[in-house]
């Protein structure tokens, strides 16, 4: 194609004359705004479907009803959608199934369906809806099946009519009928078979058990005087504490003995202490400080509690630890407590070997301390703690040091075989 044919000459137009605007065809609005103008000519799709439905309804009403002798057309007049075809197929299957069922089977299916539904829901459905062809559904299905089984069933393509549902307002008469029908439905309650001569006013054969009512707590509150204040210095402090705050709990004074206040000097409780100053004191009750030095009863009572030698064992008013208490502390689960016990036991063994409490084996204090060591299996505990692999390194070091002090003191050579 010749490119020059697509391009024409430039022609200038006369712009001196401008056509005037023509507003004659437009109406004048009283509000000053332009009037609404229809910008499309055809109706919407919704309006077209609605008008088409009205036309079909008007045509069906004006069309005369065909007689029974008039043959029906083999071609359908209305184009069916997939959903309508599927609904028609399901309806035919249901009608065929109802036709094959006996009246007993239909009644059993109805009872099973109603028993699985909520009675209030069934009552509400019966009040709000009335199915026109519910009573004639099995007969209609049977008649349709007979028509389809005839010689002209294949030639006919009649669309079966769909069941119509009509909603009506519930009235007083309907409520009475529904209440009567509700009695026939299972309510889930147990039915009691009563005899004809049952008397409701008769005395029951078995009286109800009212003993459980007596066990209920009484909520009646009566004013009571305020409880008295507790005095920690009271000798019966623990008993008063239990009566005031823990009345409903069992009492075990032995577990609260460590909370008891320290007895006053020269009192009855103080004189019953195992480390009270008197002439006869067992050797196993002797107490030592952290450096392994022996503490007499009078010195032990004079040491203030700030030194850290008081504890909640026997004779809490006396400072220091016995060999049995140190042996028990050496088996503690806390490493710091084991370290203190191992260090103190090692120093006691060293002083025992040096002869601070007797130079001979027949001295009662020295042999009493050694017997307390053997009874508490102190050497076995130290050997086990020193030879263990892993664990707390500090307690292992103190156990090794205690065994070295036992060798250094020389008591091992004095008690060979004992």
From TrEMBL:
Pfam families: RPAP1_C, RPAP1_N. It comes from the Eukaryota. Residues 88-132 form the RPAP1 N-terminal domain. Residues 1-79, 129-207 are annotated as: Disordered. The lineage of its organism: Eukaryota, Fungi, Dikarya, Ascomycota, Pezizomycotina. Belongs to the RPAP1 family. One of its GO terms (biological process) is transcription by RNA polymerase II. This is RNA polymerase II-associated protein-like protein. Residues 61-76 have a biased composition (Polar residues). InterPro entries: RPAP1/Rba50, RPAP1_C, RPAP1_N.
